[in-house]
């Protein structure tokens, strides 16, 4: 049984593969979007490509896209690009995989404007930030940091199972180790965790 991997950059067969612009779309589920840390000579041209690829039935989510305080792209442009992704996702009824560094409070504004679920991937912030996102209606996906961060583990204990996902992102750790740690945190079997993740996937994709 393959465990569902919410966001990854590998050849893993069951999950949401983050397709890079310019690469051939795979025959397995993928997401497509403009990463806020990447500077595109012309983001509108790049976004046109995203729009074309996003119509593929294998494309089950938009992203990763979002906001990053460290980016050389201005906040103004980042917000414009992010909003376009949310609008595209709304028109296609596909959820949005969000990359966010240091700008989480701004996400609340976009959650209000979004017709589809927003999932903050690779969450590695304070519990207070996480609670703010959950209260606003966003989902949270945990990555490899969950294995080592005690504070993240204690926050994960508080997050309702139906509002979370697990992912490896670009790390080489097996997705199994994330299921194991969450199973321990929640006192549930790996099969039960997988069951819940698949239910969550249904919730965010059957719109
Ligand atoms: Zn990623």
- Strand order of the biggest β-sheet: 1-2-3-4-5-6-7-8
Residue share in β-strands: 15-25%
Helix content: 40-55%
Report how far the terminal alpha carbons are from each other: 26 Å
Stretches where pLDDT is under 50 for at least 5 consecutive residues are: none
Account of the protein in words:
This protein has about 210 residues and is of the alpha/beta class. The chain has a single domain, classed as TIM Barrel, CATH 3.20.20. Helices cover about 45% and strands about 20% of the residues. It has an 8-stranded parallel β-sheet with strand order 1-2-3-4-5-6-7-8, sandwiched between helices. Strand 3, helix 1 and strand 4 form a beta-alpha-beta unit. Helix 1 packs parallel to helix 2, helix 3 packs parallel to helix 4 and helix 7 packs across helix 8. The chain is globular. Bound molecules: zinc ion (ZN). The site of zinc ion has 6 residues, from loops.
Write the layout of secondary structure elements.
Layout: E1 5-8, E2 15-18, E3 30-32, H1 43-54, E4 59-68, H2 75-92, E5 96-101, H3 104-113, E6 118-120, H4 127-136, E7 139-142, H5 145-148, H6 150-158, E8 164-166, H7 175-186, H8 190-205
Parallel strand pairs: 1-2, 2-3, 3-4, 4-5, 5-6, 6-7, 7-8
């Amino acid at each position: 049984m393959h465990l569902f991997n919410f966001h990854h950059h590998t050849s893993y067969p069951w999950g949401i593969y983050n397709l890079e612009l310019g690469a051939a779309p795979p025959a397995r589920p993928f997401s497509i979007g403009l990463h806020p840390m990447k500077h595109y000579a012309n983001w509108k041209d790049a976004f046109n490509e995203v729009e074309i690829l996003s119509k593929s039935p294998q494309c089950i989510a938009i992203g990763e896209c979002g906001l990053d305080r460290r980016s050389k792209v201005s906040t103004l442009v980042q917000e414009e690009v992010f909003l376009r992704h949310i609008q595209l996702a709304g028109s296609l009824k596909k959820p949005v995989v969000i990359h966010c560094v240091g700008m989480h409070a701004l996400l609340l504004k976009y959650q209000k404007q979004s017709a589809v679920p927003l999932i903050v991937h690779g969450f590695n912030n304070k519990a207070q930030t996480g609670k703010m996102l959950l209260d606003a209606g966003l989902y949270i996906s945990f990555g490899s940091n969950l294995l080592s961060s005690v504070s993240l583990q204690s926050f994960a204990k508080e997050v309702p199972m139906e509002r979370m996902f697990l992912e490896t992102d670009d790390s080489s750790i097996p997705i199994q180790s994330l299921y194991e740690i969450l199973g321990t945190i929640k006192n549930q079997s790996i099969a039960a965790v997988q069951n819940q993740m698949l239910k969550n996937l249904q919730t965010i994709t059957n719109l």
